[in-house]
Amino acid sequence: MKAFNRLDLNLLRIFDLLMNEGSVSKVAEHINLSQSTVSHALSRLRQQLGNELFIPVRGGMMPTDQAKRMAPSIRHALMLMEQAVHNGPVFNSTNSKQSFRIAGSDYVELILLPPLLKRFKETAPHISIQLEELNNSDYLRELENEKLDLVIGFEKPDHLSHRLLNKVFLQESMVVISAKPLGSQGKPLQAKKLEQLSFIYPSNWGHTQSLMEQWCEKNRIKRQLGITVSGFVAIPELMKQLDMVAALPRAIALYYEKYFRFFWYSLADEQLCYRHKLAWHPLRENDPALSWLCSQIIEVGENLK
């Protein structure tokens, strides 16, 4: 209790930004402070909470297990305080009958939506979701006109308008999935092995595939594309019948491992990963319903890590 009584709320804001940005320099730029000031604030927070919270790694800062556990509650608390300051109405999820319109990929439908709707069933039984596929739009107009409430996309390549507000909520590695063993389970695939494989290219996952293509080009790996498909449904059967593989997010690999008994393999470069982000229009920044929805998705993302 004493540590909490001495806690500066500005430190929690910096904690939340570090969870989002993963970099002291990016946080400093976001709030227009020097890097040394942000580092000093992090040092104070570490001392008060008795935990390292963030560990330096190549390219940024990685949260500790305690930081990951704290993050959803801190984010939710900051949202509630922001609503109180702006005298906004309190969103009652238990009684609300609101329908949220979200644009997202097959990943959202397969991985995020089931646990999210399970949460709704328990705490917000009358709330519903309308999900539509991602397209080539930058989504500024759709969100401004409230044809959509939220977009769940990828950080890179970034096709979303830079005028939108956004928050990264999940980082995930890219792995190779196969219906048959490709080698020792848990041993990363090397470049020579990758060049021998025939890949399925799911076009509606263009963001993740672009990331894979850039990585292959950087490492001078010639990836064989066996077939391009427009959807997600055919991929498991193609893998089984045609002995093909696919490069997809780790959560999908775990899903295939559980329901299809497929195999998955990491890549030699552990830096090959991408980040999911939420995007919404600045006009909705203080919308209590949207803030609640974002907090629910963030918590679902935390449980996937």
TrEMBL record:
InterPro entries: ArsR-like_HTH, LysR-type_TF, LysR_HTH_N, LysR_subst-bd, WH-like_DNA-bd_sf, WH_DNA-bd_sf, YidZ_PBP2. Keywords: DNA-binding, Transcription, Transcription regulation. Gene3D superfamilies: Periplasmic binding protein-like II, Winged helix-like DNA-binding domain superfamily/Winged helix DNA-binding domain. Pfam families: HTH_1 (PF00126), LysR_substrate (PF03466). GO terms for molecular function: DNA binding; DNA-binding transcription factor activity. Residues 7-64 form the HTH lysR-type domain. PROSITE patterns: HTH_LYSR. Belongs to the LysR transcriptional regulatory family. This is Nodulation protein D 2. It comes from invertebrate metagenome.
